[in-house]
TrEMBL record, chain A:
It comes from the Bacteria. It comes from Arthrospiribacter ruber. Residues 5-118 form the Response regulatory domain. Pfam families: Response_reg. This is Response regulator. Keywords: Phosphoprotein.
From TrEMBL, chain B:
It comes from the Bacteria. It comes from Arthrospiribacter ruber. This is Uncharacterized protein.
Amino acid sequence: MDTNKILIVEDDVVFCKLLTRFLTKNNFEVLDAQAGKSALNLIENNSFGIAILDYRLPDMNGIDILKKIKSQGSTTKVVLMTRYGDEGIANKAVEEGADAFVSKPINPTELLEVIRGL
Amino acid sequence: MKLSISQNVHLVEPGDFEPTDHWYPRVLNSNIHPLVAYFLNLSHDQMTERYQRLNPMADKEALMKILKYQPTYFRWAGTDLMHVTNHEGNRKLTVIETNSCPSGQKSMPLLDLNVEQGGYKRLIEKTFKPMVEQHPEKGALAVIYDKNPMENIGYAATIADVFGENVFLAKFDKTDQNPPVKFEEGKMFVKNEKEKWEEVRAAFRYVTQEPWNRLPKNSRTLLLNPIEACLSGGRNKEVASGAYDVFNEEFKDKGISIFTPKTFTKVPFEELRKYYDILGGSMVIKVPDSNAGQGVYTIVNEEELDFALSQISKDDLYLVQQLIHSNYLEGLDTSKAWYHVGTIPDSKGRSYAFDLRLMMHATDEGIRPLAVYSRRSGFPLNEPLPEGKNSWEVYGTNLSIKGEDGWTYADERLMLFDIRNFGLLGLGVDELIKGFVQSAMAVYAIDQNAIRTFGEKKANV
């Protein structure tokens, strides 16, 4: 597994673009998907060290993808992103095996610290 | 930068501008062609003088009035032009369309290598900032957009730097049932990090898909451009065509006119076939408020006509234009037919149709060119079209491609105005001046149409 390879799953294209830029500058290789289905395709064909998943996606939610990753026995670390007021979801994510969760708004530098701490 | 402070809203902070994110990669490594840099630095006096040398009947005073014009509504515009010739070799730049909120910065090499933010900064400093400073409303600054994140993040970062304050970057999509932007009594609000509505005093607007469905007229929040610019022709080809007619009538004694392909407006569906015959078996059908190459059909045979008719609504009215032909054809009316000049033939002899996108902005000295680039078609003008290929391949130049994951573009057909590409277009300073004057006249015509429709108002300048 390439521990420096990160998957971002987030339906906001601008978010993906900005976070990809930031993480690439910090020496990570980043792939992104804007929907759950395309994320699952990437997961099937790649080996990621870390997956950063938005909870709310157009076709499924981040916990569905988290479950899929964990059910495959993958060692990919999962960070779930939640919104203001979504604390209940964060707790559920941890129960399902998420390695960390971060609340939006995301400060890229703080997210980097979370990633490096995994 | 704070990402996703609420759904589809980011907070851009001073210092966030990153050139690698706001230009296409090959533009970052390009150098502007010296002739293009020369053109962009020409004064209005020089351009007026030269235009009259090229068009001896043109009235210099009228030309100067147009170049120094201060638009009330339409202060940021982009025209698409084509380089055409007739049977006598009389070459012209013809206006295909004029758009409010145009793209272009990401395709424009730096004019001055020492100004890292390039055209983004010129537009914000010379157009947006003076307007905001004259606008008495309270609130934050925002960029609202529905496409083109590369340029819009760049605009937000430039505004943050120029104003020294944080800027909301909010997606305002036409399909969003719960958008992060709303208007109340003409004032714009955007959702902040606590999902509360925050008032906005001024917004840079790149909302291009049916913007009239969500932007109010007479907005209290300053918008560059306001919706009135779109409603008056800045995003409707039919209305623009009417505005050009009024302009040409007004200036008919001044030796200047907006040159467009022969145009018929408000054509009912059932009469489209008749126009195909009138125009000699070819034409272009346009859905009036379409953009990004959608809703435009080039037609050169019955099969393409049938296809176009199967794709469009029977209940709408259409704009029909004479096709600019690929090559000389026997039987065409030589007094009316126009042909693509095309690119300089490559080593395989291929010459392609191309357009010229010219972005302009209103500054304290009048209308100025800001960015310029070209897009070529996919199939050469001077080769027979293979069976099954649509004529759009020969005539269509738009780069936007709508994919499953949003919009992408055909990079191989983008022609930069840099040292490597500009020469391939066969254009010189004279053509750039002619194209700019045509474009400025189109802006004048549409802005005057807005004033006639919505009234004089303080332009916030």
